[in-house]
Every structure is written in structure tokens, then in C-alpha cells.
Amino acid sequence: MGTYFTIILGLIYLIGAFIIPKWRKNKVDKDWKFFEVLWFSICFICYVIFLEIRLPSYFFLIPSLFLTIFLVSYFREKRRLVNGLLFNLFLAVGMSYLGFLVVRTVNPLLVVMAGATGIFLLLLLLIGLYALLVFLYWNAIVVLRKEGHSFANLLTLLLAIGLTALLIFSYYSTSILPQWALTLFGIFPAILLYFSVVFYNFLTISVIYQFNQPRYNQDFIIVLGSGLIDGKTVPPLLGNRINKAIQFYQAQKAATQRAPKIIMSGGKGDDEHLAEGAAMKAYALEKGIPEQDILVEANSKNTLENMKFSKEIIEQSVGSTAYRAIFTTNNFHLFRAGMFAKMANLNANGVGAKTAFYFLPNAFLREFIAIVVMRKRRHMIICGLIVLAMIALTLFDYFYVGPVS
């Protein structure tokens, strides 16, 4: 029976894997890779449950509980950072469970997957940090060459230099510093580890949020402004946001014969000749969008104001709070923009426009720093507790272990 089930499930998986790319061709976002991974995960979970039932045991209910907690939290409110933590808890529990199942069943498929995962984790442990450093230096060079030498473009370079200095210090410090001093300087890697975990949770939910798939029943699409070239021209980064909105506009109109209104949101900066919203409207008109389907919000100075003022336009247009809306921005900015929409009590989730790969590491670091600043009190408290704990350990080493040099 086990062999027949495996063959049938394998055939079902192959059929689904073949159909998914064809199905995605009719969607606004034609990317099919996420759905291939999702389909594989569903089939794999079915296979694991089958193995457990044959034992018989029901330990799969433990990771299932963590997955359920994540899904309930995510679909109740997608724009929360805690969702990244919940998903990573599910992954940790799920991987531990699969390791336990491999030992119990010695299933060939699970053994191969566990072996491949083990090799990957071993390589990550041995060369992961060094590979990261090489990547950061390479990325910094590319960004500086293509985007200029502004401070915002130096983030990957600064991170690479900081990690290099930490590695060099860690290598030589054990031979020149006493134990209590090593414990004291452990403050820096401890805080770095904390922010690494926070960044990983942020990156996880940012990636998951990319796959938001709004229905073709929207009343409004908000396009977030991002600055103009020479104070008057829409740059490629902003053009991608507008193009994403136009893509959804045309797809909904074709599917339902009902076009949403596009709100171009962006005020006039000190160095700009006209409001971003006006320049964005002109761009959309050139792309063939009818003027009656374009609204302009020209007073906002930041993303939070984009959301607040666009919300006011929406509610004035419909005369109530009963509306359906989405917003478009670049993919790296998508999750933080969603957080601002939540802060503005705007019932809207986003769809992200693609960004050049070389730009993403620097951009995600910038977004992460902005989110840390948004929650700075919480992070300052946790970092303060880390410092106090390390100082206490230092005092213990000095007075009870002894200042051995």
C-alpha cells in the first residue's frame, strides 16, 4: 500500500507542477515559483502524514499547531512583524519533527532530504559568514558604481566592514585579553546576534508578504510616490510602481469590465518643480489610462501621509468606509508601507513592483533600519538588558574566576 500511495502522490505532484506555470500566465503576477514551492510543500506534508498514520502516531499535530497559529495570525492581519517570528517558529519545530521522523522511519526519501539539508547547514556553518562578507563587498561595489556614493548606498559596505572588524578582533582577542574582558566585549556579538534574529524575522515576513494576491474587485489602487528626477521627471523606480498599478488596472478591467480608480500619491518636495502626484498622473496618461480614472493626492511628504491623505480621498469619493483598496510600491518597501497603511487605519494591502537584484540587499537593510527606528524603544530595552547581563557575567568572571591574563 505504501508503494502505491507514493506512486500516486508522485503522479499528482507532477501533474500539478506541470499545470501551475500555465495557470499563472493568466494572472497579474505571472511568477509561478512560489506556487511550485507551495504545491511541493502540500504534497510533502500529505506524504509525511501518511507515514505517521502507518506507524501509527500523530506527532505531526505539533508542527501543524504552529503552522495553524501562523496562518490564523497572518490572515487576520498580514501587516504585523510578529508573523515572521511565528513562521520561523513553525520552521524550527517542523525541521525538528522531520529529524525525529527520519530516525523513527528510516524512510529513503526523508533520509536523502535530511542528508541534503545537513550538508547545506554544515556548509553554512563553515563558510556562511565568509560567503556573506564576499557577497556584501561585491554588492557594495555594484551599488556604488550604479547608484552613486550617497550614505544610503553605503549600508552593505558599512556592514561588511563592521563584520570584518569583528572577525579580526575575535581571532586575536583570545590571545591578548583576559577572560573577563572577553566576556565584556561579548556585548557586541550578542547585540549583533539579537539584531540578526530580528532581521531574519523581518526578511521572512517581507518575502511572504510579496505573494499577496488581491482579487479583481478593487475600487482604488494607491501608487506611492518616491521622488522625481530634476524635480519633474518620473524615475525608473517610481515608474515601476506606476506600471504595476497599470498592470493590475488593466487585468481587473479585462476580467470584470470594472476599472478601479488610480490614486497618484505624492506631494511637492523642496527641490521639485511640481507635485509627484501630478508627474505620476502625466506618466499614466502617456500609458493610456483615461483621465477620469486617475485621482491625484499632492500634499503628502512621506509614506504615512501617503496613506492618510489617500484614505481621505477614498472616503470622500465613496462617501463611506465601505471600499476595497490596494497600494503599489517597490517590493523591498512593500511590508513597511503595509505597516504605515495599518497605522493610518487604511484597509489596504500591497502588491510589489520588481527591483533590480543588486539594489535589494542595500534597500532591505535600509527598510530594516527604518523599522528598527519605528520600534526603537523596544529594541533599546532589549539591548540594555543584554548589556546588563554581559556586565554581570564580566563581574562574575573578574571577582569569582579571577583576572587571569
Automatic annotation (TrEMBL):
Protein known as: DUF218 domain-containing protein
Keywords: Membrane, Transmembrane, Transmembrane helix
GO biological process, one term: peptidoglycan metabolic process
One Pfam match: DUF218
UniProt cross-references to InterPro entries, sorted A to Z: Cell_Envelope_Assoc, DUF218, Rossmann-like_a/b/a_fold
Gene Ontology CC terms, in alphabetical order: plasma membrane
Record field: transmembrane: 6-23, 35-51, 57-75, 82-103, 109-138, 150-172, 184-209, 381-401
Record PANTHER family: INNER MEMBRANE PROTEIN, PROBABLE PERMEASE (PTHR30336), MEMBRANE PROTEIN (PTHR30336:SF18)
Species annotation: Candidatus Enterococcus dunnyi
Keyword Membrane found: yes
Domain DUF218: 219-369
